[in-house]
Design brief:
single chain, alpha/beta, FAD/NAD(P)-binding domain, 2 domains, 5-stranded parallel β-sheet, 21 strands, about 30% helix, binds NADP nicotinamide-adenine-dinucleotide phosphate, oxidoreductase
Length: about 475
């Protein structure tokens, strides 16, 4: 075989796509195109701009290892600041020319000539040797099927498609959903709303943290003056953070019990009203769902204009919401903080692999991949932040960089003429998923709560191992796990 430069199409320009573009460019790949359906880069930070949006991971950790930023304004950055950071990184690292915005991929099909045909919403067809899906996890908004919702007289807005012209000041606002988003949006809208009703189907444990804290004066100056020190601090924080999170989530330990005790203490100390506290107290262990962190929610929900509604929603009427007990509460605006179709990955894009198999059929019971990145039946296709990515424990930027580096090693083999096709075996994928299922046993995600971590067949779609195991699994390609052509 003679090698040649692979034509690579990356789908998505969020954290995973930006990282992949950077890593491939650094490895000398010259034919890389990133297709992004939005009109800007940033992924989740582009699509989400609801009031109160902040990242609950400290900014000095929630950033690319290859582009640390010294001058974050807040310890926990706002969504706007993070979105600006992504745009700046792309500009400053010279990635802009690789990215085509406003280009939605609708289809990708593998053919007999061993290549992918990628079709865009505009009908354009592009040919690639490799497709890398960096399409994100929490992307497609979930709208609940509540009777009457379509007939509500006022605006109904999903947080992930926020209407920036919507003014909720002085309005009666109903917020449905109590994940990280619902908690943030209630805290932000409560002060100016005439009233705010928070409809809570399952209560959430909330860890208190001073989220609006400003980065200490002098930190930015020191970190930019000493970039090596900055990188070292970043690495230490990322390592320490993932070690702690992996420890508390994946096995019972005193550290898990300590974090859980803190969650319980936050509720006890910050909510003195026993009736309200009882309604706010979940019936499952803290950390079982994606942990919610907030410095302002308990204050907001205690306010005189706020109500926590725990009776189930029976229907939406043109004027408001009727709960299962028959009570009707008027509303001017309904905010859906109801989350995402978290297991779609690249779908609803149509993805057709070898022998015309359809990803919808392969993943009918839930997404499965080999080490987050390869899927049997789909040659020359990889995912970055694919199934089992560590959204509950390890930095997504680190995971993206590691996965992109792993993929780059296969692309180098193509360039060197050592392979033209590569497809992971069923056996290796089954073995990996069996290991995942076994390792999920002692995790906190498996302790009896419902969450977006669970797939249709009840599997936990997360990473149950530590960072070292991830590095080992993605450090070097294991040819025995693949059909190479
Ligand atoms: P989510 O955690 O999936 O929460 C969705 C909420 O909607 C849940 O409370 C759910 O109740 C409720 N819900 C769904 N259908 C409902 C219905 N028919 N009636 C009543 N309630 C209904 O979604 P999210 O809050 O958007 O958060 C998703 C993830 O995004 C987070 O876990 C986090 O990973 C990420 N995020 C991060 C940040 C950050 O600061 N870094 C901020 C926002 C989001 P049940 O629990 O009963 O199903």
């Amino acid at each position: 075989m003679t090698g040649r430069e692979p034509r690579v199409i990356v789908i998505g320009a969020g954290v995973a796509g930006i990282t992949t573009a950077y890593v491939l460019r650094e490895r000398g790949f010259t034919d890389v195109t990133v297709l992004e359906k939005g009109s800007d880069v940033g992924g989740v930070w582009y699509w989400n701009h609801y009031p109160g949006l902040r990242c609950d991971v400290p900014s000095q950790v929630y950033q690319f290892g290859f582009a640390p930023k010294a001058d974050w304004q807040h310890t926990w950055a706002t969504g706007t600041a993070i979105q600006r950071y992504h745009r700046d990184v792309v500009d400053q690292l010279g990635l802009t020319s690789l990215i085509r915005l406003n280009t939605e991929v609708t289809d990708a099909e593998w053919d007999e000539q061993h290549r992918w045909t990628v079709t865009t919403a505009a009908g354009e067809q592009l040919i690639a040797d490799f497709v890398i899906c960096a399409t994100g996890v929490l992307h497609h908004p979930f709208t609940p099927d509540i009777p009457g919702l379509a007939d509500f007289a006022g605006p109904v807005v999903h947080t992930a498609r926020w209407d920036d012209d919507l003014d909720t000041a002085g309005k009666r606002v109903a917020v449905i959903g109590t994940g990280s988003t619902g908690v943030q949006v209630v805290s932000a809208l409560q002060p100016d709303a005439a009233s705010i009703d928070h409809y809570v189907r399952s209560a959430q444990w909330i860890l208190w943290a001073p989220m609006s804290f400003r980065q200490l004066p002098g930190v930015a100056a020191v970190l930019s003056r000493f970039p090596k020190l900055h990188r070292r601090i970043y690495r230490l924080m990322a390592l320490g953070g993932s070690a702690l999170l992996t420890d508390v989530t994946t096995r019972p330990s005193w550290r898990r019990r300590a974090v859980q005790a803190y969650a319980r203490a936050c509720l006890r100390i910050l909510v003195r009203d026993k009736e309200l506290r009882a309604k706010l107290e979940p019936d499952y262990q803290p950390l079982c769902k994606r942990q919610v962190i907030s410095g302002s929610y308990y204050r907001a929900i205690r306010a005189a204009n706020a109500d926590l509604v725990t009776d189930g929603i029976a229907e939406v009427t043109p004027r408001g919401i009727r709960t299962a007990d028959g009570a009707h509460r008027d509303a001017d605006v309904i905010v859906l903080a109801t989350g995402f179709h978290a297991h779609n990955y690249m779908r609803p894009m149509r993805l057709i692999g070898r022998n015309r198999i359809d990803i919808d059929d392969v993943w009918a019971k839930g997404p499965r991949a080999y080490r987050m990145t390869a899927i049997p039946g789909f040659p020359n296709l990889f995912t970055v932040l694919g199934p089992n990515s560590p959204t509950g424990s390890i930095s997504l930027q680190y995971t993206s960089e590691l996965t992109a580096g792993y993929i780059a090693q296969w692309l180098e083999k193509f360039r060197a003429g050592e392979l033209t096709t590569i497809e992971v075996t069923d056996q290796a994928t089954t073995r990996f998923n069996d290991d995942v299922a076994t390792a999920m046993g002692p995790t906190v995600w498996n302790t009896g709560c419902n969450s977006w971590y669970l797939t249709e067949d009840g599997a936990v779609d997360l990473w149950p191992f530590d960072r070292t195991t991830m590095s080992a699994m993605l450090g070097s390609p294991d040819p025995a796990d693949f059909h190479l052509g």
